[in-house]
Design goal:
The chain is mainly α and about 425 residues long. It has helices spanning about 5-20, 25-35, 40-45, 45-60, 65-70, 70-90, 95-120, 125-155, 165-185, 195, 200-210, 215-240, 250-255, 255-275, 280-295, 315-320, 325-330, 330-340, 350-375, 380-385, 385-410. The radius of gyration is 21 Å and the shape is globular. Residues about 195-200 have low confidence and may be disordered.
């Protein structure tokens, strides 16, 4: 295998393993409610454990990663995940689960900065940058999809309430394999040499980027997008179980439709954006998301428990509502690529650090709000609330396009 190709394989593999873990929180919330006896708001703290840890890791380490080395950071992250996963079946408690998601969040915060900055090293050209970004995020979705079915299989064969924890042995093996790939893969990081000599400037660079109008619009869109994605993705297994009345294992597996829809949307977006333009495509996607919410959720009211429910007799909403992921998927990678490809490589780590921080905050707040509304009102009410951030994302994207067009026009020679 060619040396750059091996680096790309390592990049997408490690990111997929982290995607599997980061998005397993919805499944683990369902299992924690069933086996550890915690309430929905308590279970929702798992989202905060991983997302607030992402914020801490991004703030503390984003600007220092170029000096430490992206490749070395990825190896360390994968080894830490492997060790933590091996301890999960031994500890077997809600506290241990919280601590593991803290570890997962810290590792993801480091790895995401390293991953996105490495994309710029492997594919510096604007067109190829967007293509590799979409590939990385698409494989990320495939990792999540594989994780859902893997967790679902272990939950389905659980007879003691503890057997499902064996899934973490498989995760440990995958993480160790990813570390080995990174150890074998080369990555030319010489273009980060400028950042190595100026740590203070790098931190000031992050703060300077944060107050630019274009960055504010970008971060608002990212924050709101992740708020919607995590609100749906985290609570969909519980929605399937308690609103659609599907069995626990089937509830987890049915949520894979949402992840498959996200993967499909991200893969197909790479050629659609060239035909429609990024703003028009994303506004169409937002309108389709709102329409799907309004058309699907009314059909979920009044459903009753049926002990003999199967894939063929499940409510239609179990298949239709998760398709919102097809329209949601292009937003994150396209907007990220638009902003990052316009920046010099030396500023990528700082911008990705900001992006990860606001993504994590959006995920935590979205999941907590959805959990509270789900607990006090209903699952339908909780999912109806995503209409508000959908509208706000459209406003943020329109503002971002207006600012970038105005900036480009000002930079044109007279």
């Amino acid at each position: 295998m060619a040396r750059p190709a091996l680096a790309i394989v390592a990049l997408v593999t490690s990111y997929a393993v982290l995607g599997l873990l980061m998005n397993s929180v919805g499944t683990v919330i369902l299992q924690s409610i069933a086996h550890y006896g915690v309430s929905k708001p308590q279970a929702a703290t798992l989202e905060a454990c991983k997302d607030l840890s992402v914020v801490v890791a991004s703030f503390l380490f984003a600007v220092s990663l170029p000096r430490f080395g992206f490749r070395r950071a990825q190896i360390g992250v994968m080894l830490a995940i492997a060790a933590g996963a091996l301890l999960m079946p031994v500890a077997n408690s809600f506290l241990a689960t919280q601590l593991f998601f803290v570890l997962t969040g810290l590792c993801f915060g480091i790895a995401k900065v390293a991953t996105y900055a490495s994309i710029g090293l492997l594919r510096p050209e604007r067109e190829r940058h967007a293509g590799l970004t979409s590939l990385v995020e698409g494989v990320f979705m495939v990792g999540i999809l594989a994780g859902i079915w893997m967790f679902g299989w272990f939950i389905g064969r659980d007879r003691t309430g503890e057997d499902w924890l064996d899934v973490y042995h498989v995760i440990a093996a995958l993480a160790a394999g990813s570390a080995l790939l990174w150890w074998l893969a080369p990555l030319d990081e010489s273009r980060n040499a400028v950042a190595e000599g100026a740590p203070a400037a790098s931190r000031r660079d992050m703060l300077a980027l944060a107050i630019l109008p274009s960055t504010i619009a970008f971060l608002a869109a990212i924050f709101l997008y992740v708020l919607v994605e995590q609100s749906i993705g985290t609570w969909l297994p519980t929605f399937n179980n308690q609103v659609l009345h599907l069995p626990s294992a089937m509830s987890v597996q049915a949520s894979s439709i949402f992840i498959a829809a996200l993967a499909l949307g991200r893969v197909s977006a790479s050629w659609l954006v060239a035909k429609l333009g990024w703003l028009r495509l994303l506004l169409i996607c937002l309108a389709a998301m709102a329409a799907l919410v309004l058309l699907t959720l009314p059909s979920t009211r009044g459903l009753t428990l049926r002990p003999d429910v199967t894939w063929f007799s499940a409510p239609l909403a179990a298949y239709i509502f998760p398709l919102i992921g097809v329209f949601m998927a292009p937003i994150y990678p396209i907007v990220s690529s638009v902003v990052l490809s316009a920046l010099p490589q030396a500023r990528h780590a700082a911008m990705v650090g900001l992006m990860v921080i606001f993504s994590a905050l959006g995920g935590t707040i979205g999941s907590m709000i959805t959990g509270i509304v789900f607990d006090r009102f209903s699952g339908q009410t909780a999912f109806y609330l995503v209409l508000v951030p959908i509208v706000l994302i459209g406003i943020a994207l329109w503002q971002l396009d207006r600012i970038t067009r105005r900036t480009a026009a000002a930079q044109q020679p007279a």
